[in-house]
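Late entry, magnesium ion complex.
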Amino acid sequence: MSGTGGNDLVDETQAGFEARFEYSPSGIWSAPGRVNLIGEHTDYNEGFVLPFAIDRRTFGALALRDDDVIRVSSAAGDDVVEVRVADVASGLDGEKRAALGWAAYPLGVVWAFGRLGADLAGLPGFDVHFDSDVPIGAGLSSSAAIEGALAVALNEVWRLDFDGAQLVDVCHRAENDFVGAPTGILDQSAALLAEEGAALFIDCRSGAAEPVELGLEASDLAILVIDTKVAHEHASGEYADRRAACERAARELGVRSLRDVTLEQLIAARETLDGVTFRRARHIVTENQRVLDTVAVLREAGATEIGDLMFASHRSMRDDFEISTRELDLAVEIALNYGAIGARMTGGGFGGSVIALTPTWLISQVQVSVDGAFAEHGYTAPEMFVVWPSRGAARER
Ligand code: ADP
Ligand code: MG
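Prediction complete; structure with ligand written out below:
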């Protein structure tokens, strides 16, 4: 029932290390990708999110060296990037850092350990080789997976003794401050802290995270990812625009962030905001409440009862935040018509994927129906696969 990875990929990662470096790794560590069950664009408003780790993982085979050289390699490419621990610790200058390419993600983890208190001077270098069945750049967070896999590996072999929350910090700093890709803590929290069978309820203001049982198997439910394969070319500008609208609304309302506003307060202050800003804020305020409601419903009644909240979240993103696309809307509509009990777009929007909470015996019916509808509309054929809530980063071997 689990995904495509498992032991085969552990063996492959080991073999990949041996082929590249001509000796054996001392261990293999891994971290998962993730999807967000509910709570979209709430992270940078200091609100709530509810992702879960998926059964697709990035594996890192690693061995310490006798010198201070670091070599990083990935099955996703042919280049082996070589640097010294001290050079990474110093941060490298702009041009050298840019030249690292994909290796900035793992090397950013090394750098962030140093920034967050690890004394890197005198630590030995290492060789690491990554392999993965998390699709890269598809919104399932392959970036946090590669960071998380290396973070747990180095935490152990370098005996750094960082706890889970500190490792989230390390990976978050790596991606934001070293790679230079602004993200909230959602991805890294899921990759490091998630538990099997559960979603992770995260308060993005405090960073506190706690597991919430999903009980999918017991309810004969599964989550189908429908990747529309469509990416909006103006997505980053639209993202910045939504962020700015949220900040504008918070400023007008005199609060630190939209986290601090109730729907009643927002409605009472309606006159102070222009129509678009009001709707942007209403999405955030109601979405935060939907995350809280989803957690409560999961605990009291189980996953069979969260379908309406998922669809309400989708409508809010479609109508108030305006980040959906016709492909995402079609996937949601058809999934709900043909068996899903809840469906919504997931991720930043303007393309990407829908998740459909579906009774297991109706999964293939939903798939066939979505495929047919996309063909009828002349849309790119979507990719669909089931994901299971899985554990966070850990040692594999
Ligand atoms: P996502 O996290 O949604 O997959 P991102 O753009 O955040 O997309 O991160 C993707 C980038 O992370 C890739 O372009 C690459 O630089 C790096 N990356 C992730 N996983 C791997 C991997 N297994 N091997 C090499 N690079 C990887
Ligand atoms: Mg990412």
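The longest strand covers residues 48-64. Will revisit in the morning.
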